[in-house]
Write a structure and sequence with these properties.
Structural class: mainly alpha
Order of helices and strands: EEHHHH
Shape: globular
Helix content: 40-55%
Strand order of the largest sheet: 1-2
Strand content: 5-15%
Number of strands: 2
Length: 100
């Protein structure tokens, strides 16, 4: 399946990435500055950009909202430490057989 044609509605134009099935992935240079920054921080910390970031970047506002939810869950007001929250996330991911 071919990737969608570039749109005129503000969404980034897409390119085909042979490692990700048939989804066209946004060219990083065409993404908004804040999303490129998020990709850069992930690359520095993890050595790569997680596919979930790339997928959600198809609609940059979705990535922003997902990131805001993540930040609230991991850093928002709570009786749990960051380490405890991360451990809960690891256990849930293992139980769901999810590498993230």
């Amino acid at each position: 399946m071919s990737p969608p044609d570039p749109t005129q509605d503000g969404r980034p134009k897409l390119r085909v990435d042979p490692d990700v099935a048939w989804l066209g992935m946004p060219d990083e240079a065409d993404l908004p500055e804040d999303i490129r920054g998020l990709f850069g921080r992930a690359r520095e910390k993890l050595g790569h950009v997680p596919n979930v970031f790339r997928l959600l970047a198809l609609r940059p506002e979705h990535l922003r909202r997902w990131r805001a939810l993540y930040d609230e869950l991991m850093r928002g007001e709570s009786g749990l430490t960051l380490a405890q929250r991360e451990m809960i996330a690891v256990v849930v991911s293992i139980e769901n057989r999810c590498p993230y």
